Structure formats: structure tokens, C-alpha cells
Amino acid sequence: MSERILDFLRRRDADGPCVVVDLDIVRDNYETFAKALPDTSVYYAVKANPDPAILNLLESLGSSFDCASVGEIEMVLATGADAARISYGNTIKKERDIARAYQLGVRLFAVDCVEEVEKIARVAAGSKVFCRVLCDGVGAEWPLSRKFGCDPAMAPDVLEFAHQNGLTAHGVSFHVGSQQANLGAWDLALAMAAGVFQEMALRGIELKMVNMGGGFPTRYLKDVPGVPSYGEAIFGSLTKHFGNRLPSTIIEPGRGMVGNAGLIEAEVVLISKKSAEDEVRWVYLDIGKFHGLAETMDEAIRYPIRTPRDGDVTAPCVLAGPTCDSVDVMYEKTPYELPVSLSIGDKVLIEACGAYTTTYSSVGFNGFAPLASFVI
Questions:
Q1: Alpha carbon of 202 to those of 72, 199, 206, 207: distances in Å?
Q2: CA-CA distance, 124 to 240, in Å (whole number)?
Q3: How many of the other CB atoms lie within 10 Å of CB of 251?
Q4: Whose CA is closest to 25, among 184, 235, 258, 201?
Q5: Do 81 and 56 have their domain in common?
Q6: Which of 19, 63, 73, 365 pairs as cysteine with 290 (C-beta 3.0–4.6 A)?
Q7: Phi/psi of residue 116, nearest 5 degrees
């Protein structure tokens, strides 16, 4: 809990929910990642929170950037960062967007199939490409789907095709799943990456880089290992699978970089029951799935919530948002314990909201304004 954020909220007199991000915490997080894996390049996953103040800070600290679109690339370039510090990490790109990124100076692109390679070869000649391979995501609270990546056995064919079409077959990438609490998750992925390196060497092509993705967690309700523990485990796996010929490496922290730096202030709009016999109250906030809390989908992310009545007797509640949409319910399968004394009009603080909140907030669903955002 940042005292700087609490002081800001005490002085704020505007109405409506807001998220506040403390740049001092972002700075500390970056320095922790850089220290834990000193020989690995940090590429901040811009999609987690693209606020210009965050991007400017990270650029000044020497961070590189993982971008999912031309829009994100342009935001990064606006900080003064060189295009050489940008990876176009989305495996699903329009050809004209690849051409625009190339025009802007980007030379590092993700692929997971020959069809994507063909697009890059046509409009971004000579660029470096890395092939994303599938991971099972075991141990992650938000495992990633099969939407991105290919079977590791297919990756050498994709990379060899890139080499044959004038591109540089640069390396391999993977993502072990968001909010990954299993320190060993990177071991299996690095074993797969080493296998691709070995197969490519047999084909006469030397790969140079492993992009180890994100997945570094933020603490919500459960304790998670610290970044130094991840650094130690990852370095151990690198030496185990690559020996003395370590590749250049990249990590792409997003949630781990900004998640714990943000706090949402919201207001209790209504507390009610569905029947006289119902023992579970419904607590409605002025923020919900459509205005920043999309990651409560399937109750995957359970945010810590503080109230002005903490310490009083608690009881389970269904927690829901304010919109006229039946899916706007955050926690119902596993009700949330909140004080019985909680009242309409009380302000609540939702912790660890620096990542994937503003970027998931709708433009104006039901006429509600997008989530207000402040970076201090």
C-alpha cells in the first residue's frame, strides 16, 4: 500500500472510480528485474499499462519494449526510445502494420507460422524473426490459450523458411502463462527452446536469442515468489539446457512491472439481498468488468480489497459492477468476505491494479466514463 497514493486520494475531490499508479514502485520493480537477471534484456510489455509517464520512466531507465501494435510502437517512440529497443511481439499482424513498423525502424518481429513469415519477408526485408512455441501454462492463474505459438516441432520449419526468404532466423520465444507462481515453469520451456536451437544447428542455422516472455506475478491474495527467486531459477535452467553457450535472452514483464504499483478507489453503490432468506449479500461497486476489472473473468484474478470498516465482523458477499449487464459480476462462485457493517457510499480500495485495468476499460459502455487514471 503506497502512502503516496493514499495521500493523493485524500486530496482528490473528483467523483467516480480511479486508478492511481506510483512511479516509485515501477522504478523499484524495474531495478529488481534488472538485478535478478543482469545479462537479460528487459522488454516491458506495453499492453499492461501504456501510460506515457510509465513509458517515459522506463525509457529513462534503459528498458526496451514489447509492443503488440503500431499504436504501441508509436507511443514508445514518442518517449525518444530508439526503434532498436522495440520488439513487435504480436504474432498476428496486418501486412501494412508490419510495413509501418519497418518504416519506423523496427527490425525484430514475432512469428508462429510460415504465413506470418511471408508477410514480413514481403515488406520488412532483412528483419530478425523469432518463433513463438506453445507452453502448457501449468501453474499459472491465467494460462494462455493456443491462440499464440506453434508446436515446438514445427518451429524449426518456420525459422528455416524465414532464413530461406531473406530474413534472419534469430531465436525462439514462449510464454509460461500469466501470474505464473511455479518457479520451474521456465525449465520445461527452456528445454523446448534448446531443442529448437539444436535442430536449427543441424540445419546449418545458428539461432542467437531466447525470449522468455512474461508471467512474473503480482501479489494479490496469495503470496508469490520474489523476482530474485525467479531470476535464480531461470538462470539455473539456462545453464542446464544451454551449457556454456548461453544465448542472448529477453524477458517481457508487464503485470510484474506495474501490477503492484496501482490502486483503484471505488465506491459502494448498493448492498442488497435477493430474498428475505438469502444469507449472501450483493455488493455493487461503481466499477466492474467493463470499466477495468475484466481480469475477474472466471474469477481468475482475485484482488485484495480494503474497506474503511476492516476489522469488523465479515460475511460472504457477491461482488458486482454497476452496469445493466448480467455478466458484470466479479465474484460469485467464490463469494468475497467483506465487513457486515459495510455501507452504501463507503469507499473501497482495490489493490494491485496497475496492470490490465485502464487498457481493459470500455470507452463508454452504459454511458459510464472510462476508468480515470493518474500516475504520480
A1: 37, 5, 9, 11
A2: 35
A3: 28
A4: 258
A5: yes
A6: 365
A7: -70, -35
- The pLDDT value recorded for residue 143 is 60
Count CA atoms closer than 13 A to 311's CA, side-chain side: 2
Segment 340-366 shows an average pLDDT of 94
Q: Maximum CA pair distance of the chain?
A: 74
Q: Which domain holds residue 361?
A: 260-375
Q: Is residue 371 part of a domain?
A: yes
The grid coordinates of residue 267 equal 465506491
Q: Which amino acid is at 283?
A: V
Q: What is the pLDDT of residue 100?
A: 98
pLDDT on residue 351: 97
Q: Is 324 a catalytic residue?
A: yes
Domain tally, the chain: 2
Q: Is residue 61 part of a domain?
A: yes
| H helices present in 203-350, as ranges | 227-242, 255-258
Asked if 250 and 274 sit in the same domain, the reply is: no
* Given 113, 135, 150, 324, the catalytic residue: 324
pLDDT level of residue 85 (50, 70, 90 thresholds): very high
d(CA 150, CA 179): 22
pTM: 0.94
Q: Give me the residue label for grid cell 461497486.
A: 285
Considering the domain architecture, whether residues 238 and 318 belong to the same structural domain is answered as no
Residue 147 located in a structural domain? yes
At 140, phi and psi to the nearest 5?
-90, 145
Let me know if residue 15 belongs to a domain. Answer: no
Of the three residues 228, 258, 288, the one that is the final residue of a domain is 258
Cβ within 8 Å of residue 92, ≥6 positions away: 116, 148
Residue 179's pLDDT is 82
Q: At what angle do helices 114-123 and 95-103 cross, to 10 degrees?
A: 40
Cell of 129: 524473426
| Mean pLDDT within 65-82 | 98
